[in-house]
Amino acid sequence: MTGAMDGHAEDRGRVYQASGDQHISEHHHHVGGTAGPSSPDSVRLPAVGRPPAVLRDRAEVMERLRAGVEATRGGEVYVLYGMGGCGKTAVAYAAFQAATGEYGRVGLWVNASDRANLRAGMLAVAADRGADDGELLAARTGLRPAADLVWRYLDRSAEPWLLVLDNADEPEILRDGSWLRSSPRGTVVVTTRRAAARWWPGAELQHIGVLPRADAALVLCDLAPHSGTAEHAAQIADRLGRLPLALTLAGGFLSHQVLDPWTMEAYGHHLDEGERVQLIDRGAEALPGADPRHLVGLTWQLTLDTFEARGLPEAAELLRLLARFAPEPLPLTLLDHADISGVLPRARTETALRALLDQSLTELVDAGARCVQSHGVLLDSVSAATPAERTPVLDTTAVRLLDAAVPGVPDAGPDDPRLRLLVPHALALLRRVGEPSTLADALAVVTRLSVALHRTGDYLSAWETSRTAADVTERRLGAEHRLVLAARSRAGRALFRLGRYAEAESSLRDVRAAQERLFGVDDPDTLDTGYGLQLVLANLGRREESLALLRATVTGRRKALGAAHPLTLRSRASLLEMLPASQTLTEEDGALLLLPAECARLLGPDHTVTLGAAHNHAWALYLLGRFGEADEEMRLVTEGYVRRFGPDYPLVLAARQLHARTRTALGHVAEGIELMTDVVARRERGLGPEHPFTAASRRLLDEFRSGKWRPPRPPGG
Which pTM does this prediction carry? Predict the structure, then answer.
């Protein structure tokens, strides 16, 4: 043995060299780890709320889409483009219904408005087409290419399908990772405001514009048939630019007036007298026609005025609150909280929400949880017209509601789709908030959301959330603001989990240097970044540098947080994993080997830190040659992990692999082979047969079977 560190780091573990032998860590990064997937979000039901009863005018485009979903066709990609509010989603919904109802295709609907929802939806598509939990977990944690997995199952689908990618207004998201592809087994329909052909090579583009005059009038008559004549309806349609969203809002208003019903003629007079708010369709490419936000603003303002006149001002306030968030599904649980009283009485939230639903100002949708969703054109229009004096309380209330929806102390656990639902709203709020102090509060919540995503294994969403949050707020809070640096630190930690070690090291070094200079070496934020950096250094093979930084982190956390704090105990548990076997006996005068019992006493036996400490303790015992003690501890740890994370979670497989080592070291070779056979099979399903982790497990299994495997030699042995 030359002493060169040429070992293989399995499962992103650390490579050790002790007593002349190399030992491979088995992914003991337990706390802050990932979790197994829960049941994926349903993609069989379009999240569109209430579709129009009759689809007006779109006969030509529907004929082309129907041709694309005929049983003998496949491989087509259609892009429906147009300005906000023109009814692209309604056309896609009609095509979806035709494909599933008339042509017997499987319908798959994915929200493509942001990276987190796109990835979650597409992985749910893979699950629908047969991907198992292990494969989905590997894709979610970045251990295998997610888009490749999805399209492999789409290409293998036994049934023909139609896939709708709705609200793809940032087509670069689809290009990153190559999410948009074609397949002979199905047809893809994309809805977007971005019309440039460079985004959609090989696709058939179809413009969805405003309605012809007669069809626009029919929309109003469909919704409010007793409010006036066809000519009155046509006149209103002209005033509203024949924009389907504006027509829907106007028709919803007219159809729900009970005490003092308005005629279409009266509604037209009010439109002529209303304030003309000049707004732009942000995010859309230049298209001819009237400004949709201006047109929509004419309709909802009349509705809110009526709410005020009828003694329901809470509806107007609730709509202004919704406009602080994104035009994506918003969990109803977020609104059902005492902190909403900053804007409207909690007891009146139900009534206000029903009023908005009745007027088509928002819709109920099922996105894996009960949600409300409002059109982006409407929300931008409402936000731009909100009185300046109302925005501080609206922002503060929105931040408090988001704060209540994010776990206070994020922990490792199963995949939680509800967290991803919060991401677009959190980032939208950062862009809306004006007051620096409120912005800082919002950033703290968004960073905590990133931590929660990280600890359920959604590393890509965690990275994108924290990175975007830092970018958005740095311009107003400054690059050296404590919370901006904390967000950058979390982004670096996520890069490490994604295997992007060089980027992670550079980012974390820069953040730690700034934190040391601004806050001191023993500041909790500095120590947290240092802990993340030492993980990166260990996986880059720089063991001495990593160990020195880890010891400094333990000392600093003891001083700053106390000996009983979970982060202090977590750092000490990492020493059990990092130290050579001989040093575990003398570290902390031998007290380190008592750490699992200390964690159980201070935190409880099922705490994440306690389980991780026991795992690392078993590894240390194994290196010391105390195979019987290590074997019993790994049996208990594995049982605890399976209860928490499920059988395919990488940490469970790493635990089983160490358990296989201890069983074999004790002479139970057949049991060791059985355990390793299961580990290899699960890794092959989840990661593929060529993945380095799979290959490492297969090598160990081969060594067990051939009788060539030898347990580690204890110090002095």
Answer: 0.81
